[in-house]
Specification:
The protein is mainly α. The longest helix is centred in the N-terminal third of the chain and has 47 residues.
């Protein structure tokens, strides 16, 4: 689930914290912080899957309220039960892996109750929800499709969801949920597409990593950036021309250090991929023009390393 793009970002974030204080942290403590950040992202994945149950519960409560209201007013009321009878949602609720993880890690939406209420209102007002509720007899595919659209069309880039996750970060003692949530939502969409009705409560969810190789990539990248700090800093300084390394954006330095760690210690990753990945990280996490600066510095360093035959990298062949 956690891919190399996200791993790179988390290594950059961990290194930022590692060098924030002059004393720095130990490699061991920073490695633990990196692994904890992976756990936090996976917990967010599980929490967002459990969001389905939270919203269905809100829909159920609304029907119960309307039924009671109609009874008091002596008015007829026939509930539209498409949403509360959604088979995909029921499958999520009964999923053994999800239930076990949520219980073991004590994940809950309780601390963000008001934001969940606002999100439920937005879902009811969405076109995908309204269209779904008009289907006379929804199929299992319809049940999946409405939730895929809710995630993609309603929850993505949603300020109320971001506020809810801010509340939950504090209440549940997790980090980076507000920065990771759009990435995690893409994993939720991927999960929904994989669901099959016949799998019932045993439907497989995404693993934290697709392979041990991905996890090792993150650990090795962090270690290389810390172990070779002086060497990489010297490389950067040598190509700054009139720039003082102490005057460049702190995040720019960290991104450059991480990029050099990958360029010099991961020969099987094509240079073009590495360069592009860290330019994108700069766009997201540093100043407005940082990506241009980082691109220029990396280009100069790579040119020098190639000239000195110190760079062995894979290449992309079209």
């Amino acid at each position: 689930m956690i891919n190399r793009t996200l791993i790179r970002t988390k290594v950059v974030q961990t290194l930022f914290s590692h060098y924030y204080n002059e004393e720095g942290n130990s490699l061991l403590s920073s490695k633990k912080n990196l692994l904890d950040s992976f756990d936090d992202t996976y917990s967010l994945y599980m929490l967002m899957l459990d969001f389905v149950n939270e919203i269905v519960r809100a829909a159920d409560d609304k029907i119960a309220f309307e039924e009671e209201r109609a009874k008091v007013l002596h008015q007829p009321y026939t509930a539209n039960v498409n949403f509360v009878n959604n088979r995909f949602a029921a499958q999520i609720f009964n999923n053994r892996v999800l239930r076990s993880y949520v219980d073991e890690h004590k994940l809950s939406w309780d601390a963000a109750h008001e934001n969940v209420r606002l999100l439920w209102k937005q879902i009811q007002e969405s076109n995908c929800y309204k269209e779904y509720m008009q289907i006379e007899q929804p199929t299992y595919q319809d049940d999946k499709t409405v939730w895929r659209k809710i995630v993609s069309d309603v929850l993505a880039n949603n300020d109320d969801l971001c506020s809810a996750l801010e509340e939950l970060e504090v209440a549940l003692d997790h980090k980076d949920w507000t920065t990771d949530y759009n990435v995690v939502l893409s994993y939720i969409v991927k999960t929904i597409k994989r669901f099959q009705e016949d799998n019932g409560a045993n439907q497989a969810l995404l693993e934290m990593f697709d392979s041990e190789e991905e996890l090792n990539f993150g650990k090795q990248l962090l270690k290389a950036a810390i172990d070779h700090y002086d060497e990489y800093t010297s490389l950067i300084e040598a190509h700054l021309q009139n720039w003082d390394i102490n005057r460049i954006a702190y995040m720019d330095k960290i991104i450059l250090l991480t990029a050099l760690a990958e360029i010099l210690t991961c020969p099987n990753i094509p240079l073009e991929i590495t360069m592009n990945e860290y330019i994108e990280i700069a766009k997201d996490y540093s100043t407005e023009k940082s990506y241009q600066f980082i691109n220029a510095i990396l280009d100069e360093i790579v040119r020098k390393l190639k000239k000195e035959n110190k760079l062995l990298k894979a290449v992309v062949i079209d």
